[in-house]
User: What shape does this take?
Amino acid sequence: MADLSVDIGTLHLKNPVMPASGTYGYGPEFDDFYDVSRLGAIVTKACTSKHREGNRYPRMVETPMGMLNSVGLQNKGVDYFISTIYPAVSHYDTHIIVNVSDSTVDGYVEVAGKLEALEKITAIELNISCPNVKEGGMAFGTSCPMAASVTKAVRDVYHKTLIVKLSPNVTNIAEIARAVEAEGADSVSLINTLLGMAIDIEKRSPLLSTITGGLSGPAVKPIALRMVWQVANAVKIPVIGMGGISNASDAIEFLLAGATAVQIGTANFVDPMVCVRVIDGINEYLDRHNCKSVNEIIGALRA
Amino acid sequence: MADLSVDIGTLHLKNPVMPASGTYGYGPEFDDFYDVSRLGAIVTKACTSKHREGNRYPRMVETPMGMLNSVGLQNKGVDYFISTIYPAVSHYDTHIIVNVSDSTVDGYVEVAGKLEALEKITAIELNISCPNVKEGGMAFGTSCPMAASVTKAVRDVYHKTLIVKLSPNVTNIAEIARAVEAEGADSVSLINTLLGMAIDIEKRSPLLSTITGGLSGPAVKPIALRMVWQVANAVKIPVIGMGGISNASDAIEFLLAGATAVQIGTANFVDPMVCVRVIDGINEYLDRHNCKSVNEIIGALRA
Amino acid sequence: MTKFIHDFKVLQNREVSKGYHVLVLQCLQQLPAIFPGQFAQLLVENSPSTYLRRPISIYDVDPVENTISLLVKVVGSGTAHISALQEGNTLNLVYPLGNSFSLPEGKKVLLVGGGVGIAPMLLLSKFIHSHGKEVSVLIGGRTSADIIEPDQYAKYATVGITTEDGSLGHKGLVTTHSYFDSVGKYSMIYACGPDPMMKAVAGIATRAGIPCEVSLENLMACGIGACLCCIAETTSGNKTTCVDGPVFNVKDLSGWDRSK
Amino acid sequence: MTKFIHDFKVLQNREVSKGYHVLVLQCLQQLPAIFPGQFAQLLVENSPSTYLRRPISIYDVDPVENTISLLVKVVGSGTAHISALQEGNTLNLVYPLGNSFSLPEGKKVLLVGGGVGIAPMLLLSKFIHSHGKEVSVLIGGRTSADIIEPDQYAKYATVGITTEDGSLGHKGLVTTHSYFDSVGKYSMIYACGPDPMMKAVAGIATRAGIPCEVSLENLMACGIGACLCCIAETTSGNKTTCVDGPVFNVKDLSGWDRSK
Ligand SMILES: Cc1cc2nc3c(=O)[nH]c(=O)nc-3n(C[C@H](O)[C@H](O)[C@H](O)COP(=O)(O)OP(=O)(O)OC[C@H]3O[C@@H](n4cnc5c(N)ncnc54)[C@H](O)[C@@H]3O)c2cc1C
Ligand SMILES: Cc1cc2nc3c(=O)[nH]c(=O)nc-3n(C[C@H](O)[C@H](O)[C@H](O)COP(=O)(O)OP(=O)(O)OC[C@H]3O[C@@H](n4cnc5c(N)ncnc54)[C@H](O)[C@@H]3O)c2cc1C
Ligand SMILES: Cc1cc2nc3c(=O)[nH]c(=O)nc-3n(C[C@H](O)[C@H](O)[C@H](O)COP(=O)(O)O)c2cc1C
Ligand SMILES: Cc1cc2nc3c(=O)[nH]c(=O)nc-3n(C[C@H](O)[C@H](O)[C@H](O)COP(=O)(O)O)c2cc1C
Ligand code: FES
Ligand code: FES
Assistant: This one.
């Protein structure tokens, strides 16, 4: 049994595996399948300043080895999170990271500020990359100045671990990563979904109510891995890698490419046990390769 | 039998289906399977000013519903093309579009200038988006000024139909499309491959000699379709759509999204007959929908 | 309700009508309690164009044999692969998912199923019948080939049939069947099938002041409330059809023009 | 040579050794001429992790029965699916692809196959034998389980066997077999197997001044010269292994340290 623990900011994670925001609810959804506290951390669905209904149905389409979604940040708002959801999840014996989204810098600041008071919320993940909202969302993640400004504003009010989640829909993701690192982000996570589209040729209409949506799943893995590798080579803060991870082998690719931890999203829908299987699989790999700690393989790509 | 013909610049294509550069050789590779002259056009492998050996082996990895390649513009140079390849393909009764690549603006200009003299080469496709070369290549396609400058330089020397092939590895592909349109491109084609990566976890080394490579195949279709839709809404010149097309239904999605023609790449490897199957399938669809001409469905998405 | 991930062994695969298969699946563990209207998320292996699981209603349950049955209509690659499973094959299910139909107050109830929408109605008939109620089942389809195993209901219910082409039972849409002539006698109406059918039934029920539950077949990714892809618009906001549904009382659904 | 895309019917699938399958496939059209060393690109259906075709050598040809055989070793998902094909299943091939081994000048030749690299050697034995030459076949493997159907060659060749663990034949690497003691008597050596094995054989041949042909198993996308993914570095630049190969004379291959 190798030492699987890794550090992200001030968080000491028992292992480098967490679910990706928006694919895991808040944790209890998976209680029936395994002990959710086994995860390195839980990452919640996006939390915004106000209640949001999200986009209209239909919100998903299956695509080759992946899916498009346009959920659009449906959630009951930060106050509801604090009053109702937090009490229901704070018993978990692992870190809880809240994914924070909004349409305005003030909104992000409001949510982050309110969450800081919650003892069990040890980090937030600033979602500046949601492709599924009309205002804000991805726009913040596709320009260095905007990414920097929202990071800076949140950094001013939020003193725990601040992870910024990057958009892959950019020319140079390393540049954005450096911009948020410069403003004090403790870590970057990537990738959020790639903007995509699908059409019903019989009806001649888009298959999503929002026309475009975010692509995730195994299809995007090669792109995600490349971006994680680029970013890991560009910043000093730890990188959390995700995009299409479906098994331990995929996760290890991300670790080798330089990710300190990984998130697993869409694969939870196909195999609800995937997160624990990945934890076990990483452990087996480390044992087989005589590694005492997962840190030995982080960034260990021979390139 | 609907009218399948479409116009791209001064080219009148008998149908909107052509193979994508680098996936079809020069045409003769497919002679055994069907009459290559049935295609709307043939698009050749990249042609550069000088002979190039391309990248080292290994140059490909399979990925979920797709593949990464890092062939890197292997070809014998424009003079060899003119002396040896052109005579071997000029008998085809369809348009031949040469994919033009290089590392410098002068190189592009040299190739384009030399090709203009060839009667049967009715158009060139300026590849400013190859992710698999160290110099030039994709760099030209990821900034508006660079894309504009190479287009302008080639436009000055090349007077037949000029198609510019765009890179998907950008924040705003519509912007690049507008930049090349402004410099006189007659058409834009998209998408080239998305930059990706894959790792051999046992050897802890990249699976491509070049570390990163270009992702293609069904996996990228949702992204490609979204980009084609964005570009078609941004420019007035005809758009040639590609990325993951494997059957007539996929091709029709691109036409509905606004593509005047489509290219089929990776799918040729799986089904060497795919191009003619797509031509037949589009025809059937048009008949079934009582369309007299394929033009009726181009851009006909109800969004 | 606790959800499980279990492997099932295919005991039987009968093509009960062209394109409709009934699969009898034996659970390798002990089956949990399953309520009518609940569904399972099926893992479709070896289908390159099927990445996500597929939601399929529980058609029948046999606690003695420790089996469940599914009624599957082939509409695409996923259902084609499921329908091609052979005796002895293994199928992985996440189940039982979703809420379930509620027990009616009164004595007589009407169940309406259109096409493969009939799937949850067998278990529901049994369940309501076992509570001493009188059940009428109305099965509608385009042609006789879409009327699946009507005999199955005989023990628990009176069965009416309609087909659009008149090839079996009454000719016409399900809502033109005589059961609807004296609809007032039913204390509850349940419907599952194509949206237009359910909306028509919901309209009749609402106008007659009868409570009506429908089972929605929204597109699903997770099936367990984690992704928020499958939402239905209700009078109290967007609800998941996989956890808050698939069964909804039509009075709670927005945009179901119930007065028309 | 004309390439075809043909459907084949699986007549037989024998697991000839653990993880090695011989498939006998009947062509639904007339088989074209096939030369030793050529291969086919197999369409692998129903394998979500296998998108591209898979290159497999032609193991044997029976023009009378209009069949070909393939010898497949399971190494991943694609070969697992191919090896799971059952009698009556259909398999789509693009074939025959690539160049072929050349006929030797002299009388005696040595064929060396390592593991599944033996696949092209059966047809090659037959071919050379039919031209009145004397064929020695040397089959190497890690254990006896990797020595596939040595009896098949008896009619056409003398057969030598080596295993690394000594479980069959001579113990050691293929190059330690006594056939190499008097290697000078061969006018040509042919090899197919893992790269290190082929390089070792190539080294011996080169030092002895004997022409040597090897068959490379480079990763392929198209198999028909269209993509330039499969290149081998040769003294005259990069060549495709799918069209210019898979058979190369080692003297033309760069980086094959032939003097060592
Ligand atoms: C709660 C629930 C219970 C269900 N119960 C059953 C059942 O008991 N038996 C049964 O046969 N089917 C049932 N369905 C529908 C079934 O899930 C779909 O038919 C199936 O997912 C289609 O998968 P596919 O790969 O075959 O088709 P795809 O290739 O995915 O799709 C084929 C066509 O069907 C459409 N389609 C796919 N899924 C749905 C859907 N959910 N609603 C409407 N259109 C859809 C697609 O848009 C497409 O046009 C149920 C669905 C839900 C949500
Ligand atoms: C011209 C040619 C002829 C061949 N003839 C035969 C034959 O007769 N019988 C036979 O069993 N195999 C043969 N092969 C090898 C065969 O093509 C591969 O084993 C097969 O493609 C692997 O597919 P997979 O999906 O099972 O494995 P994958 O999951 O794709 O790969 C499994 C592992 O095998 C490695 N691998 C895959 N393909 C190759 C390759 N071409 N070379 C080296 N490593 C590879 C991968 O890197 C991976 O580590 C031949 C290959 C070529 C190019
Ligand atoms: C249905 C769905 C909802 C998502 N919602 C969010 C969200 O609220 N916030 C966020 O930052 N990312 C969200 N994502 C993106 C994922 O967290 C993840 O970045 C992406 O899906 C790539 O990982 P994967 O391929 O493993 O799914 C969502 C993804 C999916 C599929
Ligand atoms: C093996 C390979 C080689 C390619 N070579 C070229 C090239 O030389 N020039 C070019 O513009 N695009 C090249 N491409 C990109 C394709 O033309 C096409 O843009 C891309 O593959 C997306 O389409 P697809 O998904 O249908 O393959 C190549 C693609 C592949 C897979
Ligand atoms: S399908 Fe994921 S929430 Fe219902
Ligand atoms: S595999 Fe495409 S050129 Fe050889």
Remarks:
- The first helix of chain A runs from residue 78 to 89.
- The mean pLDDT of chain A is 96.
